[in-house]
Amino acid sequence: MSNPHADRVRDIAKLSTRRGRTKKKQFMVEGPQAVREALKAHLQSPVLDAVYVTESAYERHPDIAELMEQVHGTPTPEEGRRVFMRVVTDEVLAAMADSVTPQGIIAISFMVDTSFSVLWGENALNPKLIAVLSRIQDPGNAGTILRVADAAGADLVITTKGSVDLYNPKTVRSTAGSLFHVPIIQSVELEEFAEDVKSQGTVVLAADGYGTVNLQDLIDHAAVLRAGFSDETPAGVKGAFDLSRPTMWLFGNEAQGLSAEEKSAATMRIAVPVYGAAESLNVGTAAAICLYASAMAQHQTR
Q1: Is residue 1 part of a domain?
Q2: Predicted confidence (pLDDT) per residue in 13-50, tens digit
Q3: Same domain, yes or no, for 92 and 122?
Q4: Full residue range of the structural domain in which residue 259 is found
Q5: Which residues are in coiled coils (predicted)?
Q6: Closest to 71 (Cα-Cα) out of 58, 82, 59, 87
Q7: What is the reported pLDDT for 302?
Q8: Among 56, 75, 110, where does a domain finish?
Q9: Tens digits of per-residue pLDDT, 156-203?
Q10: In angstroms, rounded to a whole number, what is the distance separating the alpha carbons of residues 28 and 168?
């Protein structure tokens, strides 16, 4: 393809907007790492509709070229369609892309949202570690938290109403492919979902700089219990909770944090200790600390 003004090119460029994504139920995946993970995901379960690559990018990434050969012509999630692939010029790719400096390859994926119906029950997901993005609005922060959740082995990522779209091209790029590894559900009513989660025996923790429970105390408590010793429950902890239990973490808006209503949906409010002079932590950094605290405790008991 060599015409940057072609209808197909314009249609793909529209996926940079939420309206365009919603209309097509598709989103754009840019860059070698994200496309690589999308191709791998497609081989497990169809997600892709098309892939566009420049000749130089195709030659630079022989592993991606091999994956493309395996995926080319396979069924898409839409009945009767097959995965379409084309070599395109740099000008065409630039006209399609959302990024300022495209990396030579774009995939078009169908949306990959998980259904509530598969969360609980026999042979269901039954998540042990959940991350909730509550009114997170920066695409980079959202992508970072999703990527951290993937690395920590989280089973589910949720966004509430008012959060950035996880299919925003900037968010997709910042996940570096993790969007295809972790089940997601978007625009959830937090209070209702939190009650559902609690009914399954999962504890809901709010990451809150002014929280009544210190995360370091929870980490120390979990370590003592793992060693086989008894330990006094840390101050402010409700019940016999320790970090190895199924947990859902709430992470709030960058500027405002969690609202009073969002905090009230939690079982406990947890503060990440700040030992230096910094006023607070970026939400992505706080999420990494909290999710890994839970992940390490949970994996020690498996």
Answers
A1: no
A2: 999 999 999 999 999 999 999 999 999 999 999 999 99
A3: no
A4: 116-298
A5: none
A6: 82
A7: 53
A8: 110
A9: 999 999 999 999 999 999 999 999 999 999 999 999 999 999 999 999
A10: 8
- Report the C-alpha gap between 85 and 62 in whole angstroms: 16
Burial of residue 4 (number of CB atoms within 10 Å: 0-12, 13-18, 19+): middle
98: its two tokens = 């959302």
What's 50's DSSP letter? Answer: E
* Assigned domain for 2 exists: no
280 close to 274: Cβ distance less than 8 angstroms: yes
Q: What is the CATH number of the domain that holds 26?
A: 3.30.1330.30
For 157-212, the DSSP string reads EEEETTSPPTTSHHHHHHHTTGGGTS-EEEEE-HHHHHHHHHHTT-EEEEE-TT-S
Output the six-digit token pair for 92. Answer: 């065409």
Tokens of residue 99, six digits: 């990024």
Same domain, 126 and 275: yes
What would the two tokens of residue 41 be? 């995901």
* Closest by CA position to 2, among listed 132, 129, 94: 94
With a threshold of 0.85, does the pTM exceed it? Answer: yes
Q: Is 82 helix (H, G, I), strand (E, B) or coil?
A: strand
For residue 59, the model assigns a pLDDT of: 97
